[in-house]
Amino acid sequence: MKNIKEIFQGPKMTTYSIALLGVLMALRLVVGRFATITLSRDLHISLAFVVTVMIAYYFGPLWTAGVNGILNLLVFFIFPTGSPFFIGYTLSAVVGGLIYGLFFYPQRVSILRAIIAVSLVTIVVNLWMNALWSHLLYNNPFWFVFSARLGKEAIQLVPQIIISYLVLKVISRLKIESKLR
């Protein structure tokens, strides 16, 4: 196991790793845009988390947090939805990337790591933080927003854990990370 400094530092940035990060960022934009179902103004079902998990596995917590923050801003400006900009959602994206990076980089892939990481992102970011942002932004009662999110997140939790684990198992066999570290 690597020490804390190495985990937060991420891989050495080479031409290869920068190119891979750029491709994954572009993929995240495309998947986030076209593989998303909008349920309401602030409830969406998306497969973009899959690419975030891949970035976390290859690049670690700081890179994933930064990339998530940048992509959140890019999505807002490139694909406007009519909703006002709120920095809280960018903070949620950053925290989600940080959590995934802490659990998936440079660790051995395990179902337990997938369960803990996805559960933490679901509870801390998707439920609590995003419910708070919606409450502050739209003046909806917090517990109303929280309960509306609870059903969606409960339904998505197990599929997200399974998909994250399977994607990590597949990409760990590709041995791309050996070219990054």
UniProtKB/TrEMBL annotation:
Alphabetically ordered keywords of this record: Membrane, Transmembrane, Transmembrane helix
Any GO molecular function: transmembrane transporter activity
Keyword Ion transport: no
Membrane-spanning intervals of the chain: 16-35, 47-79, 85-105, 112-134, 154-171
Top-level taxon of origin: Bacteria
Protein name from the UniProt record: Membrane protein
Naturally occurring in which organism (per UniProt): Xylocopilactobacillus apicola
